[in-house]
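User: Good morning. I'm curious how nicotinamide-adenine-dinucleotide would be positioned relative to this chain. Could you predict the structure with it bound?
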Amino acid sequence: MKSILVCGAGGFIGSHLVKRLKAEGHWVRGVDLKYPEFWETVADDFVIGDLREQSICRSILDRRFDEVYQLAAEMGGAGYVFTGENDADIMHSSALINLNVLQACRKRNTKKIFYSSSACMYPEHNQLEPDNPNCAEDSAYPAAPDSEYGWEKLFSERLYLAFYRDFGMDVRIARFHNIFGPYGTWDGGREKAPAAICRKVAMANDGDEIEIWGDGKQTRSFLYVDECIDGVLKLMESDFMEPVNIGSDEMVSINQLAEIAMAIAGKKLRLEHIDGPLGVRGRNSDNRLIEQKLGWKPTQPLRDGVQKTYQWINEQVKTN
Ligand code: NAD
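Assistant: Good morning! Here's the predicted structure, ligand included:
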């Protein structure tokens, strides 16, 4: 049994991670500004605390944890990170969290620390075409992310790598590509595309129109949360120190994603394309490095994950 700290344990991926770590028999402390919104935490200990405060980080790291997973961030979908209105908060809060957590981990001689970066750190100029984006890990530099969220992720990746080089800290860094699934934000402005589309489809009646931001031809790949956690645990078990993509390489357009959700719901809806924050034109996870280094790749088709997510969001829509 390991002793494990999960930062951001009240969030979407963090709460799923806590559940998995508990199922594997570990002792888990979670920390977040809030409890998980949609289900009870199963953490042994859950601290409500603000990781922007160094004193909080020090008090939470009151022992030498075997592993720390740092997922806390100022976070949201395109409607939150690409409008420009939240840039200062995103950069300031997330950078402070990473600075504080890492320093506290160093003082406590934490054995291993995981950091969740994002595909948003890849340069915009490699993602201008919907059909052939380049998100190979070695394409990160020269850096040119299209959002301040991406720049902060890049800064923090470098911070973790510097703590490895200068203090020998054992770090693991994953660049997540659009993680989705049940028990995640599905309305309110911070939801991401799969949840937003499932909600719109669930709320619509057959023959209605639903809104899609942009022309819907922008491409992405989406990874189901359970598979994301498989990848994270595999990375933690490995000795691979460089940033690596954790994502699906089943690339679809946003229109295709909407078609999948409609087919699952058994509804025929018209797509109305409207202006909205979009992000890059094309993005897909390049899984060659993770396959080569960890022998891992996701296996679940996108449709299966959307099915489970739709079912859960449909229940939320009906009961709210
Ligand atoms: P989330 O917003 O559900 O979880 C983040 C959690 O961090 C939230 O519960 C939030 O309350 C907490 N938090 C924020 N500020 C805090 C603070 N000052 N102190 C303590 N807790 C604080 O997001 P998520 O989708 O679970 O993402 C987890 C991590 O993965 C984030 O770092 C995110 O940037 C990264 N990521 C996610 C995706 C994705 O598709 N979901 C893609 C790329 C990267």
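The chain is about 40% helix and 15% strand. The CA atoms of residues 11 and 81 lie 17 Å apart.
Let me know if you'd like a different ligand tried.
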